[in-house]
Amino acid sequence: MSAEGTGRVVMISGANRGIGAAIARHLDANDWQLSLGVRSPTAMDVPPGGSDTLVQAYDARDRGSQTAWVEATVARFGRIDAVVANAGILIPKSVIEAEDHEIDDVYEVNVKAPMRLVRAAWPWLSATGCGRVINVVSLSGKRVASAQSGLYATSKFATLALTHAIRQAGWDKGIRATAICPGFVATDMAAAAPGRPDQLTQPDDIGRIVAFVLDLPNTASVAEIPINWALEPAL
Q: Where are the transmembrane segments (predicted)?
């Protein structure tokens, strides 16, 4: 079974800028109906899809926020075909330097929030027979590049494991999950990245990859996609 078809509905967190906004643009161009979760809906410019798009308040730190967003999505569109968990935070500290509240914050947003969001949408994803989950992870979920990326990397390793756990839980229901693992992307989060911004992976590159993965049939599931802007050993 394929995820292709008209009227498909995707929920995208962190969709107001950067990678999330690029994913929304590409999926809108592929005729997906968009439900965008953002912290401040009133601060968002005209979204992709215009008035046909649902822009809903969503705070990854708020443990009830995902339920209201899922309910609003179903009330508006009547279905959920895919979830793209893109919202994330970076605290550049080693695991030795990080304070407990910083550890809690990183794990709340990067690990627990996507888990809660997928759980809330699970009945609707299951009902399609070809539900899709995309977790925007990082190459930091596959290697620890420096001490200062340590805290972030531990959370992203957990998010990568979460993606595989979702694949295991949803396989017989037709749900397929993919971890998108880019290195530095030309966004605000990568402002201190080495190299010029035009040398980095672009948000639109990620948008194209997500659009491609969401159109793959159940028989061609991709678990992980590492994305490099610079040569790295074995990645």
A: none
